[in-house]
Amino acid sequence: MSLPLVAIVAVADNGVIGRGNALPWHISADLKRFRALTLGKPLIMGRKTFASLGRALPGRETIVVTRDPSFKPPAGVYTASDIDTALALAEIRAKALGAAEIVIAGGGEIYAAVIDRLDRLHVTYVHCRPEGDAFFPPLDWSHWREICREDHAAEQDGDAGYAFVDYIRS
Ligand SMILES: NC(=O)c1ccc[n+]([C@@H]2O[C@H](COP(=O)([O-])OP(=O)(O)OC[C@H]3O[C@@H](n4cnc5c(N)ncnc54)[C@H](OP(=O)(O)O)[C@@H]3O)[C@@H](O)[C@H]2O)c1
After folding, report:
1. How far is the CA of 48 from the centre of ligand 1 (A)?
2. What's the 51 CA to ligand 1 centre distance in angstroms?
3. DSSP for 106-158?
4. Mean pLDDT of 38-55
5. Which of 10, 87, 94, 129 has CB atoms 3.0–4.6 Å from 99's, for a disulfide?
6. Residues 139, 155: contact at Cβ < 8 Å?
7. Which residue's alpha carbon is at the smallest distance from atom 32 of ligand 1?
């Protein structure tokens, strides 16, 4: 049986998730949450998101999806030329790691490619409306049930407030 497929995303009130291949905000609690939710698990991400991180995240196994056969990942990073290959590889790596789920780490193109196959979602709603060039895809929320919500004030004056919300497909 396939392992659950879990997406983690931080999204602004206008759907923006990125600008200029970077996050439009800095929320340290969100980065900590991402780390806690992903440690020990295989992460599938698009080549642009991998470029924006600039390295493999320690304590996790990274699978970069790219159509570019000349893409040379650093040691320890896997590549896949399509989503199905990435998912099959992630399944194998998760079992080797003893991980109970596979994480979709973005960005917009990769969320869109797997949106209909997701089992769980960890969303950070960032209460701002920045300009951006990467977006979270439309989702039919009637198939999703909120199971947990934590609202947080901005970390510093002038920053955006945010909420951590978890969903499962219902
Ligand atoms: N807010 C968040 O939670 C969050 C999370 C992650 C990323 N981001 C942001 O999102 C932005 C990046 O997202 P993005 O949509 O521009 O790019 P992306 O999804 O990270 O990567 C796109 C690339 O992935 C490869 N790709 C996509 N679909 C594929 C498929 N079906 N088969 C094979 N390869 C495929 C292609 O690589 P090649 O061009 O090499 O073929 C494509 O150019 C950045 O701004 C980043 O900071 C935000």
Report:
1. 5
2. 9
3. --HHHHHHHGGG-SEEEEEEE------SEEPPP--GGGEEEEEEEEE--SSTT
4. 97
5. 94
6. no
7. 82
54-88 confidence digits (pLDDT tens): 999 999 999 999 999 999 999 999 999 999 999 99
19 in helix, strand or coil? strand
The residue segments making up the domain with residue 14 are: 5-169
- Spatial CA neighbour of 37 closest among 7, 15, 62: 7
Q: Is the pLDDT of residue 42 over 90?
A: yes
Instruction: List, in order, residues 6 or more apart from 30 with CB less than 8 Å away.
Output: 10, 124, 126, 162, 164
Q: Which residues line ligand 1 (CB under 6 A)?
A: 9-10, 17-18, 21-23, 45-49, 52, 65-68, 71, 81-83, 105-110, 113, 134
- CA–CA distances in Å: residue 136 to residues 10, 48, 111, 156: 9, 15, 7, 25
In a mutational test of the pocket of ligand 1, which residue from 49, 71, 115, 133 has the highest number of ligand atoms less than 8 Å from its CB? 49
**Which residue type sits at 125?**
Y
Tally of domains within the chain: 1
